[in-house]
Amino acid sequence: MIQNVWKKFDEIELSHSSVHYLMAIHTLVTTQGYARSIDISNYLGLTRGSVSITVNKLVAKGYIIEDKNRFFKLSDTGKQLVNAVLSKRRLFERLLSEIMLVNPAIAEEDACKIEHLVTKESSAKILSFMGFYLSDDPKAIAFRKAFSEYNYNCTHQDEHCDVCELECYFAGNENYFRQEK
Amino acid sequence: MIQNVWKKFDEIELSHSSVHYLMAIHTLVTTQGYARSIDISNYLGLTRGSVSITVNKLVAKGYIIEDKNRFFKLSDTGKQLVNAVLSKRRLFERLLSEIMLVNPAIAEEDACKIEHLVTKESSAKILSFMGFYLSDDPKAIAFRKAFSEYNYNCTHQDEHCDVCELECYFAGNENYFRQEK
DNA sequence: TTTAATTGTTTGATATATAAAACAAAAGTA
DNA sequence: TACTTTTGTTTTATATATCAAACAATTAAA
Prior knowledge:
By secondary structure, chain A is mainly alpha-helical.
């Protein structure tokens, strides 16, 4: 089972790199109204040559549309993909920063690394959880308040830990749990 | 900012692939007591040639130690890396399955895809959250009970959504939120 | 011990993603 | 229009990760 799951990493529809070409076009079109090859190069910090090759492949694959003046925009497929990735990024960023209380910069970084890898199933469940967690339900309000006053401390010596199973990767790293306020 | 974060994906200490060679050795040594090149090939489903090349690189980099009979084991560095990755995998698997109520098979799959990418910072905060969430604190107990009876429904038409910001990737996918019991 | 099977390495090939540099085409300027 | 700059493409090269097949070495079996 697990032996085979890790390869799925590479079976993702598009590579991490290609997804970011699409994201770049989305951002450029949204912010400056258009996206030429050179704009993508500058935005992603890649050479014109590299961008030319990859963008043309993505045009061939139907994710990007090129007009007669060589301006690019996303196809419907491309838009769908970008919307999915952006939704997941936003979701994870908020999960980490607003609920887990991770430093926002780290939350953003981690969300960006995993955004295109996480399934829709997990994402939807997280959305559902957040829906309740952030709601006005008294149980949610009470929990949030209690958690904000809580400080986990995994000394994790001999006694059993509620959360970990094996040797604790975090033992002796109490500072990692502290909430900077 | 974000433009540059995505490249960090490739700045991870070892590639996803290499990490899994180390994980394979860990598993093989743990379960059958030793790990030869052929065992790694069989376990990962790769050819002997590919394994030979990559394992020798990882030996050169100091993650793996080879004895005179060509049996492999992890160096201390290798063990540390594997422990970190396993801890994160376990953590995410539990976060998704036990807290977000994601189907366990999907939780495992997603955890396996992101295990080596997530920072220690985020992981520690998740551990902290889980420590409280799964505790005997009455607020936690009350929340868990209430959430297990909750069913999110993102109709997300015109009105504002508590959770999403832009166009909802999940709108019209109510079935994704349903908890199979 | 000689042969056969298994295991490990090397080589040649493919695919992706990149850079650098040469080249071509388009756009802007004098 | 002619020249210059900018933009895009192509080519050559590098790095990773893989396979298949040839080859070598080790191990097991007859």
